[in-house]
UniProtKB/TrEMBL annotation:
Name of the protein this chain belongs to: USP domain-containing protein
InterPro entries: Papain-like_cys_pep_sf, Peptidase_C19, Peptidase_C19_UCH, USP, USP_CS
Gene3D superfamilies per the UniProt record, alphabetical: Cysteine proteinases (3.90.70.10)
GO cellular component, one term: cytosol
Species this chain originates from: Poecilia formosa (Amazon molly)
Domain (USP) ranges: 6-298
Molecular functions per Gene Ontology: cysteine-type deubiquitinase activity
GO biological process: protein deubiquitination
Coiled-coil blocks: none
Pfam families, alphabetized: UCH
Length: 301
């Protein structure tokens, strides 16, 4: 069936950029913040984004000005979608970019005197380590839990405590101190292999839950999946596209593949899977190509 959405022209191998631009366009909060901005700074690219978004609302659009603003000199060389997503946000005004902006603390606690030390900084995404285990699927839910699981330092791995003035047993864990409106998870499909002494792509299937809960003691923040950027092929080539859930068409999913936009029928390449979790039944999408996962904070507009 026809859709009111439109695609982006590919200038050679610029699918990595098109996929994340479509996610930004379909993230209504970001799109509206860019369009509302008056007198944008010349050092930002909001005016280019606004022009692109207005064009996308009516026809297939050309991201040429964005390519120039991001200083993409070789349009026939594929780049990393996650890297260029972050580049766009760093060149966007703070009012729009803050939707994806969170703060993360690396929190250390001395188990001797219970002193807590925070090392805090901003983040655009949470990286989840993948393992290519034959016959097994990677669980994003387990990956999130592992990311926030405390690490214990003891024995030869004790850490120095300034209060105790000696090396002590300690725990260290990640804590989100500022939850972003949109949480981006990056499945680390491109990683360095010491076996081959080079970067490789990990092709394992991933079980991607429609809803995730950040496992924290103080508050369990819940997020809902609305976009997936997928990568097909190997490390030095291949193709990106985006699957995005529309808020204004009854929650339908669409595939944004450069200039082509089509309705996405579930099940398809990604199959919903039921999984029992205590009293709840959580639905999953199983994907062999999911790379960037975009989750909207539940309760947010």
């Amino acid at each position: 069936p026809e859709t009111k959405y439109h695609g982006l022209y590919n200038h050679g191998a610029t699918c990595y950029l098109n996929s994340v631009l479509q996610v930004l366009f379909m993230t209504e909060e970001f799109r509206e913040a860019v369009i509302r901005l008056t007198n944008p700074s010349k050092e930002h690219i909001d005016h280019h984004l606004r022009q692109l978004f207005e064009e996308l609302s009516h026809r297939t659009a050309d991201p040429y000005d964005i390519l120039r603003a991001l200083e993409v000199n070789n349009v026939r060389e594929q780049q990393d979608a996650a890297e260029y997503f972050e580049r766009i946000l760093r060149k966007t005004s703070g009012n729009a970019a803050k939707i994806f902006h969170g703060r993360l603390s690396h929190r250390t606690e001395c188990l001797n005197c219970q002193t807590v030390t925070d090392s805090e900084g901003p983040f655009w995404h949470l990286p989840l380590e993948l393992e290519d285990s034959p016959g097994e699927n990677y669980s994003v839910e387990n990956g999130i839990n592992m990311f926030f699981t405390p690490t214990i330092f003891n024995g030869d791995n004790q850490v120095y405590c300034e209060i105790c003035d000696v090396k002590v047993d300690a725990t260290r864990k990640y804590v989100i101190t500022q939850h972003p409106d949109v949480l981006l998870l990056m499945l680390k499909r491109f990683d360095f292999s010491y076996q081959f002494m080079s970067y490789i792509k990990i092709h394992c299937k991933a079980d991607v839950p429609h809803t995730i809960r950040i496992p924290e003691v103080d508050q369990n923040q819940t997020y809902e999946l609305y976009a997936v950027v997928e990568h097909f092929g190997d490390l030095r080539g291949g193709h990106y596209h985006a699957k995005i859930k529309s808020k204004d068409e009854g929650g339908k999913w669409f595939v944004f593949d450069d200039s082509s936009v089509t309705f996405y029928h579930l099940p398809g390449i990604a199959t919903p899977l039921p999984k029992k979790n205590l009293k709840n039944s959580i639905s999953f999408i199983r994907s062999h190509s999911a790379y960037l996962l975009f989750y909207r904070r539940k309760g947010e507009n």
